[in-house]
Write a structure and sequence with these properties.
245 residues, single chain, 9 helices, 50% helix, 7 strands, globular, alpha/beta, 7-stranded mixed sheet
């Protein structure tokens, strides 16, 4: 039996409480859906080639509120496989990222349909830091220590996602890359590791572009060719073809 090829797509992006993301949420959702449709069409074209056997496309998502969950929902709607590299075990992940019942339900619902890769080796220590923060809400130092440790775990999970992805889709405002584990930092990591990044600018999501190479972030302010839909679509199709071949 021939080996199956599979396209693996990672996603990183702002959370739902990011003001610029929230302001353009519907446009971002529509753009992301359109991109996933283009990916499906490119994969279908490859499936018609002789000798190629394809497994379902796989999406890697950390399932955080915002772009991660938006992409996960779109992937499941297309019968893609969903894999969730979580920074913590699922229970702690929910406690940290979704303290409100509705948000917790969303993560649990998506997690139930995903293959989980839980990075739970530090859960005991992180849980202790979380308890200290909750017991001493006035102590900024305790909150800062927890935030720093959480960022390191998110960075680790994001790196797992990057290392498994042929393409990383990023919903980003194009500003900071300094926050460890944040969207900009993950984009930089992906580019440094040779994974192309399809960048959806939160302010102009329809003008998405493909970034490749560690130097790509130096010139994100303008490339006239990205205004040509045909060029951008052809570039995406070429990436899918190369990954599957």
């Amino acid at each position: 039996m021939p080996l199956k090829a599979r396209l693996c797509v990672g996603v990183t992006g702002h959370r739902g409480d990011n003001q610029r993301f929230a302001s353009h949420r519907d446009r971002i959702d529509a753009t992301l859906a359109g991109i996933f449709d283009l990916i499906d069409a490119a994969v279908a074209d490859e499936a018609r080639e002789p000798g190629i056997v394809l497994a379902p496309t796989r999406l890697y998502s950390l399932l955080a509120d915002g772009a991660d969950q938006m992409a996960a929902e779109a992937a499941l709607a297309r019968s893609w496989e969903l894999v969730a590299p979580l920074p913590f075990g699922l229970s702690l992940n929910v406690a940290i990222n979704a303290p409100q019942p509705e948000a917790a339900d969303r993560i649990q619902r998506l997690a139930a349909r995903a293959r989980l890769f839980e990075l739970a080796d530090q859960d005991e220590a992180i849980s202790a830091l979380l308890r200290e923060k909750l017991e001493h809400p006035e102590d900024r130092r305790k909150a800062q220590v927890l935030d720093a440790e959480v960022s390191l775990r998110v960075q680790l999970a994001s790196r797992v996602m990057v290392e498994q992805s042929d393409l990383v889709v990023a919903v980003w405002d194009g500003t900071t890359r300094a926050l460890v584990g944040g969207t900009g930092h993950t984009i930089q990591t992906a580019l440094e590791h040779g994974a192309p990044v399809l960048w959806i600018d939160v302010d102009t999501p329809e003008r998405w572009r493909i970034l490749a190479g560690a130097e790509a972030l130096a010139g994100i302010s303008g490339d006239a060719r990205t205004n040509d839909d045909a060029v951008r679509i052809a570039g995406l199709r070429a990436l899918v073809r190369a990954a599957l071949r």
